[in-house]
Design goal:
Helix content is about 45%, strand content about 25%. It has five helices and three strands. It is globular. The protein starts with a strand and ends with a helix.
């Protein structure tokens, strides 16, 4: 299984969209700042939205699609499925 996901610094805060084949591992890396870069620099580690895909290409295509969106569209996507902006990481395990 492959995933497209959005992590945030806080409600309506900084957003990052990514894709992965191991969502629990990847979100753990964001939370623990194990990889230098944007999410570590801006404290973006709360999993607020994710979507499963059957193929790596589908997950990557969806990531690229969402990255092209306006911020307000991304916020709407999160709020449609997660209106309280709870951290979904705990639901993964």
């Amino acid at each position: 299984m492959f995933y497209t996901y959005i992590v945030a610094s806080k409600r309506n805060g900084t957003l990052y969209t990514g894709s992965t084949d191991s969502i629990t591992k990847r979100i753990y890396e964001h939370r623990e700042k194990l990889r230098p870069g944007f999410t570590a620099k801006y404290g973006v580690s709360i999993l607020v939205w994710y979507e499963p895909h059957d193929t790596r290409d589908a997950a990557f295509h969806r990531e690229r699609q969402i990255k092209e969106w306006r911020r307000v569209w991304k916020l709407r996507l999160v709020e449609e499925q997660n209106p309280t902006w709870r951290d979904l990481y705990d639901e993964l395990s």
